[in-house]
Structure formats: structure tokens, C-alpha cells
Amino acid sequence: MDEHILKVLNTDFIFSKPQDEKVDFFEEDLIELKAYGLSISNETTRPFMIFKDTKGEYTLPVGISQIEAGVALTQANPTMVPATPHKFTQMMLESLDIQLERCIFTEIKGLHQYVRVYMKGHPKYNSMKLKAEEAMSLCLYLKVPIFATLSFIQKSKLMTAEINGFAKSGAKHPMLNGKNQLCH
Questions:
Q1: d(CA 153, CA 161)
Q2: 122 by DSSP, 3-state: which?
Q3: In terms of DSSP bridges, do strands 127-131 and 99-109 run parallel, antiparallel, or are they unpaired?
Q4: Which CATH number does 30-169 carry?
Q5: How many angstroms separate the CA atoms of 97 and 25, rounded?
Q6: pTM of the prediction?
Q7: CA nearest 50: which of 168, 136, 112, 144?
Q8: Cα 16 off chain centre by
């Protein structure tokens, strides 16, 4: 491995908030992902954006909010007049000469996936940690390369199965589906 890359991987990153998080991946372990589609189902409470690697070997489901799903769909539709809530953010970043370089999935906490968005040109920070559902449509709009490790992809599939299992069992539970009735 290139000595420069080893130095970069072993340095401490500056984060947007003080954190003890250790970035534990190697450059060669990263798999570049492309947006493939959107799964909207009645079985779960939130849509999933589907990412695949360029060879089609790996699939990463990413739970996103309904708002992010709507923005992503609108941005991806070539027949619509381009409209996005991200235009201001793009103009602000450009005016400050800040470029988002890449987005890397880093961890799962509970039912949320987190990404670290790396940037250059910011006077103080070189990355920010965000919930994936808060960053996906912006990263897609700005054409920021998106990466994950195979380990992360496998953990995400387990998380997705848990979400789907909870949604299916929750739909049958009277207290969770709004059909709770008092018996007299």
C-alpha cells in the first residue's frame, strides 16, 4: 500500500463534534455504490433507497425518510423541471469553495445508518458524521461518490430484515396498528 495512503489512514480526523469514533476501514476495503432504486412498501414505515456496486454483486438498502425519498425521486425524474431543496446548499458550498469529496457508510446504531461525508476547503473540518437518511439526496444531487465496506453492507441487510420483521409483526399487534379495542 502507498505510504502516503497509510499516513492518511492512520491520522486523526477532525470531526464536526468531539467524538471518540475511530474510522476503521482501509481504502482497499471500500466498495463504490450507485443509486439503483427506491423500495416503497406498505410493510415498513419508511422507504429504502437501494444502492448497488458497479458489478451488481452487492446491494445496500438504506432506510430514508419519506421526504428524502420524495426529493430523490424528483431529482431523478428526467421529465420534470429540475427542482430541489439542495440548490441553496450547493450554491453556499460553492461560494465558500467547499467541496464534498465522498460519503462513506461508517456505522449502524439501532435502526439508523450513519455516514461520514468528507470535504475539502472547510477552514476547520474535513468531515461530518450524519444519519444516512439526512444526507442521501444531497450526496446524490451533488454527485458525491458513495462507499461502504462489505462488512457494513452485511450488517445493513440484517438491520433491514429486523425492520421488516418488526413492521410485519407490529401490523398484527392491536396496540401498534391502531385497532386496539376495549372489551367490556
A1: 13
A2: coil
A3: unpaired
A4: 3.10.690.10
A5: 28
A6: 0.73
A7: 136
A8: 17
